[in-house]
Design a protein that fits this description.
alpha/beta, eight-stranded mixed beta barrel, eight-stranded mixed sheet, TIM Barrel, 3 domains, Immunoglobulin-like, single chain
């Protein structure tokens, strides 16, 4: 990436083995660790480091132009960037766990406000705490917003570790971020670095690839990928609204494809429900939709079972060992390769008495209600931050069926207050919860 500080010089090896390691200035950006392979002139023979012909992988059709930026670009005029035809941007969050980009928050907010599809990347330092780096990304993203690009792990530093160790730590970061944000991270790397310093592990085939290769030709990519999703093709781009040179990228697809990629990066909604039986057991029902090979039901991240869904929906009977209110419940729909493709969440009270339930019924849509409420409790209403939700089923805020179904516009943690009233309209019970709306 174009920036001001001097880079660490590398001596060319006779075999041109491209074992690039990132500069340890703790302020590196995408491409700083790949100087040897990125700076190779492609005007000569089209060969790889071993002297064999490169297998160029071109776009499947139209492409869309984007940039990646950091504090080294200074203050970016995102409205001008958008007007210049830039549709997406990757924004540096940090170099490892030590150096957070001072422009991240500004770029993150202003890119979205200008209508530029945004994504965050982190220059990964495998020699540092993996969990601390992953948690920095998780905290920065908060609740993943459909329409944003998935978070990126920038893999171009070994930290002095072996390829197997680097691969294991990349896997640790990817798994931790994916589990928290429920979106499959993108891997940024160079062909030779990934091959020689990471070992081309096959387990990353389901992660979208952002390949770095500065060439006027099509890029060639490492195993296990057969195609690239993003391609950083120069560090010398010129874009109105950005002072000086900037990394320029392409998305492999049309603008509508890019928007669909961003929208579909997040799991689809997985509707589910439950009823408590007379013997204290629960019957759970899930409807995962297409693309889901397996469903897991988890309470407080403990796996309680995997209902069979071969017929389009599935049921599971389970008896809790612990009677406790306010327990987070989640239904995860997994693809055949283990990726989370559908997700439903809610809150369950595993108690025999009157219980509050919250469960996902559709995209950003939830049902709130009371189970086994006394007959004297005539209606239920749901208050979110002082606003009474209107039941999608009845069109009223007060529900005689003792449940309210509502579709949210805003995502994230929301304070929920479920209020029960008697036939005279007097409040007889109030229960509060915090729900992660997604």
């Amino acid at each position: 990436m174009a920036k001001l500080p001097a880079r660490l010089a590398f001596a060319l090896l006779p075999t041109l083995a491209l074992f690039a390691c990132a500069t340890e200035d703790d302020d590196s950006t995408a491409g700083d660790g790949l100087r040897e392979e990125l700076d190779v002139d492609d005007d000569g023979a089209d060969t790889d480091a071993a002297g064999g012909l490169r297998a160029r992988v071109c776009a499947t059709g139209a492409t869309v132009k984007g940039v990646d930026v950091s504090k080294w670009q200074g203050t970016v005029s995102w409205s001008k960037v958008k007007a210049a035809g830039i549709e997406f941007a990757f924004i540096r969050l940090s170099d490892g766990m030590n150096t957070r980009d001072t422009q991240f928050n500004t770029n993150w907010a202003n890119a979205k406000a200008a209508g530029v599809i945004r994504g965050a990347y982190q220059f990964f330092r495998p020699g540092q705490s993996v969990n601390a780096q992953a948690d920095m990304m998780i905290d920065a993203i908060g609740t993943y917003q459909p329409g944003d690009l998935p978070p990126v792990i920038d893999v171009e530093d070994t930290g002095g570790l072996s390829p197997a160790a680097v691969a294991g730590r990349v896997r640790q970061w990817v798994d931790r971020v994916q589990a928290a944000l429920h979106v499959t991270p993108i891997v940024y790397t160079g062909k030779f670095f990934w091959r020689d310093q990471v070992g081309s592990p096959a387990s990353f085939a389901s992660n979208p690839l952002w390949i770095a290769q500065y060439t006027s030709l099509c890029p060639d990519i490492p195993a296990p990928w057969a195609k690239w999703t993003f391609w950083q093709y120069t560090e010398k781009g010129s874009v109105n609204g950005i002072s000086g040179p900037v990394d320029t990228n392409r998305f492999n697809g049309s603008l509508s494809d890019l928007r669909a990629f961003a929208a579909n990066a997040a799991p689809k909604a997985l509707p589910f429900r439950w009823v408590r039986n007379g013997d204290g057991s629960y019957d759970f029902t899930v409807t995962p939709g297409s693309g889901v090979a397996k469903v897991e039901l988890r309470v407080e991240d403990f796996l309680i079972g995997a209902p069979a869904t071969s017929t389009g929906s599935g049921t599971l009977r389970y008896t809790f060992n612990v009677a406790r209110a306010n327990r987070v419940i989640e239904a995860r729909g997994l693809t055949s390769d283990g990726r989370v493709a559908a997700l439903g969440n809610g809150i369950i009270d595993s108690i025999a008495d009157t219980s509050l339930f919250i469960r996902q019924t559709g995209e950003h849509e939830y049902e709130f209600g009371l189970e086994r409420a006394p007959s004297s409790w005539a209606t239920v209403e749901v208050d979110v931050e002082g606003f009474l939700l209107t039941d999608l089923d009845t069109g009223a805020t007060r529900s005689a069926r003792k449940a309210v179904r509502y579709k949210f516009n805003g995502l994230g943690n929301r304070p929920i207050k479920v209020i029960a009233r008697n036939s005279a309209g007097t409040i007889v019970d109030t229960r509060t919860r915090t729900l992660l709306v997604r």
